[in-house]
Amino acid sequence: MEKSGSSTGTGTAAVADAKIASIFIYPVKSCRGISVPHAPLTLTGFRWDRQWVVVNEKGRAISQRAEAKLALVEVNMPNEAFSEGGNLPRTPTWVKLTDSLTPPFS
Fold this sequence. Notes:
The protein is an all-beta fold. The chain contains no helices and 10 strands.
């Protein structure tokens, strides 16, 4: 971040210009994030960010801290999901398990 302007000593702070180089969202909490060209904002943050969570057979959330293999779960969302009013199919065909990650988690 580069600062522009200067403090005049009158109690006003310098104005900072910022440029966002990249945006990552994590649609499935604790799984691999994805880089997106834009991410619409909602009242709770970026659209689709941490909207889903992996749970065990008891319905409890599983974190990457407890199951490191969650880092191998890739999420590929269609571009249409980020357009105004875009939705996802009800069947999660956009999540795939990679390498040796196989359910169920303990």
